[in-house]
Every structure is written in structure tokens, then in C-alpha cells.
Amino acid sequence: MSFEFKDIVEVVDKIKKNCEGRDFTQSIELIVNLRDLDLRKPENRITGTLELPNPPNKPMKVCLFATGELYIKARDFKVDLILDRDELVKLAGDKRQAKKIAKNYDVFLSEAALMPLVGRTWGVYLGPRGKMPTPIPPTLDIANAIEKSKRIVNIRVRNQPLIQLRVGTQDMDAERIVENVQATLNWIIGKLPKGLTNIQSVYLKGTMTPSFRLTIKR
Questions:
Q1: Domain limits for position 42
Q2: Residue 1 has pLDDT above 60, yes or no
Q3: Buried b (16+ CB within 10 A) or exposed e, 66-90
């Protein structure tokens, strides 16, 4: 089922104006309310990742689980936090510190060979936040992996018929934010059993602004 927004550019411009006057760059968030979806059925609990057409301008903190050559390359590239095998196991045993890392870092990457270990030790902290690491194969360039990871957003529906995620920042051009919103909605619609029919309403908001409803022309 095709769709278009009647007033999305006007809404984005209104949010950007409402964001002015703060001493930080606000995120632009998309909120999608769903309907007629039985979340008791596992197949209706949407989960997945989407690569946005336009990465948000807001700096993202990256945590990498790595060993050997990848560890060295990542250190040269100045990744925010790099944990080797011993460190990731040790920190996973410190619940307070592990939860702090899971909260404070936006993107998690892992050497592909470490993924089973990361899943066993860090899955409990990262899984509920939708931050399970993206595996990095040995042949993938670390710089490209990090750049790509900044475009990726995690989308999930668990116990509430609601999806909320960042699709941009206030300093992005409105057109780029609109492209991200449309790409996200297309992805969500493709995952819903009844497509657009399962969407009740769509809103956009800044971190500190009111929510503005988008009018969908079905």
C-alpha cells in the first residue's frame, strides 16, 4: 500500500524552529503508533536494523570488541572504546559498569569471531536496548564499518504497540530528515502483517520539543 505525507516538510521545519535556543543539538525522533497487532505472537514483535539514507550529524560513541590486528587498527582510528577478549569478559561480570557502557555508547561493533562470546556475556545488557553488535569480518575496513554503523538504527516492537527512534538532528537539512522518515516508514510497513493498515498514527519530535502529528495520505 503506497502512502505520502501531506505536511511533513512543514512539520520538520516547525520542529527545527522549536529546537532553537538550546545549548545542545537536539535529535529528531520518529514515533509510530501501531494498531490491530497481537504482540503475544512472536511473529508480530518486529525487530531488525535499517541503514538510513542520511546519517544523523550528532556524534555517536562507538564501542568495539576486538583482538589482534583489528584491535590495533581500531586504536589507530581512535574508536571511543575498545575491549579485547579479557576486558569484555571482565566488564560483563561488573553489572553496574556493563549497564553504564550499554547506556552511554550508541553503536556496538564486534570482531566476527568474538560474536558468540559477546552474545553470551553482553547479550543481557545490549539485547534489551536493541544494541547487539554488528559483526565485522576480517576483510572489512574498520573505517567503513564505523561509518556504516552510524547510519544503522535498531527498530523493534516488544510489549507495547509503539516504535520510537532517532531519524536525524536539528542541524540536518529538512529534505534529508524527510528521506530518513520515508525510508523508515517503508521498512516498518514492509514488516507489518497488514502493512499501512497496522499504523494508527505517526509523530515527529525534537528531544525537548512537543510531538507533531504527521498527516498520512493513504
A1: 4-56+151-217
A2: no
A3: bbeebbebbeeeebbbbbbbeebee
